[in-house]
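To whoever is on call:

I kicked off a structure prediction for a single chain this morning and the downstream step that reads the tokens threw a length-mismatch warning. I double-checked the sequence; it's 230 residues and nothing unusual in it as far as I can see. Pasting both halves so you can look.
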Amino acid sequence: MLLKNLFLLAFGAASAAAAPGSDDSQTLSKRVLRCPDSQYVSGSKCVNKCPDGSTYTPWLLSYYCDCDDSNASWTSSSNKCNCKSGYETYNGKCVAKCPSSSTRQTSDGTCKCDSSSKEIWNNQCVNKCPQYSSRQSNGNCKCDTDKEAVGNQCLDKCPINSSRQSDGSCKCSGGKEIVNNACVDPCATGATRQGGSCACTDSNAEISGNKCTCKTGFETVGTVFWLREG
């Protein structure tokens, strides 16, 4: 009988020590709660060791957090994924900072040079390539195949038997003139260029040799070609 009373007394004391809501009960709860390696106990919960946007990765006897964004790196002291040098946060992602003299556009997040005459290449603002040219892999501008670089322009190549002048124009040799990108003889005296060919200014004349002469049945009176009478 004495032994039974001692047992009940000991059991009752243990139950009272672990009563719900008591400090001993909470301690017992913490001891029972076990979290996976990627988490730790906080209060009565398992909390991730790594911040959102990163993955827990065991390493030797410790761990590190691998940021989901390749342009970000984890800092253990702050337990955050911060953008790497040269990058900044835009819409929750780490993107390359805009180069000097450019501004990020709110519409699509791209960078645009402040000067309309410049464009971004290799993360810097450079002069735009001239019309009829394209940017090459080395950053240089190359004119289209039927053009050539003259100053900061791409102009039509000079035709055969002509040369480029100081003002950028082309000049044929031998007194010829350029028509449809070719050097041709000038029109005869009294004729003008019309649609690439020469025609006499007087409809009663026609080109013969290197001048305009009267058509059959016409004769010259002064500087005008008249119909011959009789």
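Update from on-call: the warning came from a stale cache, not from the record. Cleared it. Sanity check on the structure: The first strand starts at residue 39 and ends at 42.
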